[in-house]
Amino acid sequence: MQQIDQIFVNAKHAILDLASGFLPEWVVIVISILVSVTAIAIFGPVTMMYLTLLERKAIGRIQNRYGPNRVGKWGLLQPIADGIKMLTKEDIVPQSADKFAHFLAPVVIVIPALLIFAVIPFGRGMTAVDLSIGLLFFLALSSTTTIWIFVAAWGSRNKFSLLGGMRSVAQMISYEIPMVLSVVPVLLVVGSFSTVSIVDAQAGGNWFIFTPWGIVGFLLFFLTGVAEVNRTPFDLPEGESEIVAGFHTEYSGMKFALFYMAEFMSAFTISAIVATAYLGGWQGPWLPSWLWLMIKAYFLILVMMWFRGTFPRFRVDQLMGFAWKFLLPLALLNIFAAGVWIELDAPINYLVAGAIVAVSIVILYWANKPDMPKKRTYRYAYE
Do the domain assignments include residue 343? Predict the structure, then answer.
């Protein structure tokens, strides 16, 4: 399958080499950039459209129903119909809203989700930009969505929107810290922020998830990523049962669709980066490299959908306590376990690192275990 991957890579280089024969160098560079940008600009929205269909189908089966099945064969044209509906719906802006902020937030929030695609190694030689700080680029861009969610909430001049925006800021700041710490063990082992280098370090089936610190780091990175994109059970900024729809209460039509697009594209990029950091990225036997990355990313997306169809939403105190009192100390202890794993020789390093993370999880669980509710005793007025 390596030959198939090489065909795609060679085709791009052949086109650029042909262009360089009769065009100035700067034009060839611009063409190369436009090829990558066009691919990302098409792949991102199409991914979002059909992730919505996949989620509606998956949740439908969990709830013993079919999901969309009317528009096109098996409902495959439902995303197209939804897109047309969003484009033609009336754009309603509250009279007292900040018109500029209300317009700017949904437009700009899509940009970080699209830019992150540039550093995802989709396959062998299929990275748009191999930045030396690729993982840092992802962490920095993913954190900027907090700003635009709060801008949308503040610009709406709606108390429910403002509450959702404040929840989002508190949640994202809380979960960004353990998210950053969860990838530190990978950086210690690889010695580079480059996403391509991280994948190359896991060649030969040596995926980091097969190490004691890798299992914990994978769970930490994935759970904090789910919280970063406001997915269930971390969807308090959009708590329909409490604050209508949270920060996008006052949005309709295409503006709402842009928020929806940003969420689903971010869900894909989070899953792809988690697969890159801990599941070997595009590494795998027999199949083409890009197909391995897609399988791993979509498996994690299906887990997110399973969460939505299964788990209830956290309370605010549970959400914040889980981040600060469990995930954060566990991430710090996992860094220590990774350091021990690096310094000791196999197999003793697996035993010691495994013991550290196992004891850490048990202690943190018992330290944060809530009191079990006791049986109520009722006293009646006539007693």
Answer: yes
With respect to residue 65, please indicate whether it lies within any of the assigned structural domains. Answer: no
Rounded Cα distance between 308 and 96, Å, is 34
Give this prediction's pTM. 0.83
Q: What is the pLDDT of residues 49-92, one digit of tens each?
A: 888 888 888 888 888 888 888 888 888 888 888 888 877 877 77
**Torsion angle (degrees, nearest 10) of CA 271, 273, 277, 283:** 80
Q: What Å distances lie between residue 99 and 95, 102, 149, CA to CA?
A: 9, 5, 15
Total count of domains within the chain: 1
| Rounded Cα distance, 121 and 197, in Å | 10
Q: How far apart are CA 48 and CA 301, in angstroms?
A: 12
How many residues are listed for the chain in this entry?
A: 383
Q: Which domain holds residue 153?
A: 94-368
Tokens 């010695």 map to which residue? 191
**Angle, CA 77 vertex, CA 48 and CA 269 arms, to 5°:** 10
Q: Which one-letter DSSP state was computed for residue 314? A: P
Pair of tokens at residue 339? 């350091």
**Blockwise average pLDDT, block size 10, the chain, 383 residues:** 50 54 59 66 76 85 84 84 80 80 85 86 81 88 83 82 82 88 91 89 87 92 89 75 75 82 87 91 84 90 88 82 90 92 85 91 84 69 63
d(CA 141, CA 111): 9
Q: Is there a domain that residue 207 lies in?
A: yes
CB 104 within 8 A of CB 166: no
What distance in Å separates the CA atoms of residue 82 and residue 254, rounded to the nearest whole number?
Answer: 10
| 8 Å CB contact between 341 and 211 | yes
User: Looking at the domain assignment, is residue 257 inside a domain?
Assistant: yes
Tokens of 173: 């700041």
Q: For 325, which DSSP code?
A: I
